[in-house]
Amino acid sequence: MPDITFLDTTVLCNLIPVPGRDQHRDEVRAEMAARLGRGEQFILPITAVIETGNFVAQLADGRERRHCAQ
């Protein structure tokens, strides 16, 4: 059975990336790629999706907000 990991808001903010909340973007992407390569499965809780959406909605720059949302 493969390993299963819950992803939290900080991981999702780095994957999207959300400006100001993506300080570890390269490291997170590299670790995710390595874990996927090992066959690990991920669970993305709805709370992490909602929190990330709130961070995107709070971006002051409308162009950044739209880019992240898309």
Give me the secondary-structure topology:
Elements: E1 4-6, H1 9-15, H2 25-37, E2 41-43, H3 46-57, H4 62-69
Parallel strand pairs: 1-2
Helix pairs in contact: 1-2, 1-3
Biggest beta sheet summary: 2 strands, parallel
Mean pLDDT: 94
Strand order of the largest sheet: 1-2
Structural class by helix and strand composition: mainly alpha
Low-confidence stretches: none
Individual helix count: 4
Q: What is the helix/strand order?
A: EHHEHH
How far from one another are the termini?
34 Å
Q: How many β-strand stretches?
A: 2
- What is the strand content? 5-15%
Helix content: 55-70%
Give the overall shape, derived from the CA principal axes.
elongated
Evaluate the radius of gyration.
Answer: 13 Å
Task: Provide a brief overview of the structure.
The chain is mostly helical and 70 residues long. The chain has 4 helices and 2 strands. Helix 1 (9-15) packs across helix 2 (25-37) and helix 1 (9-15) crosses helix 3.
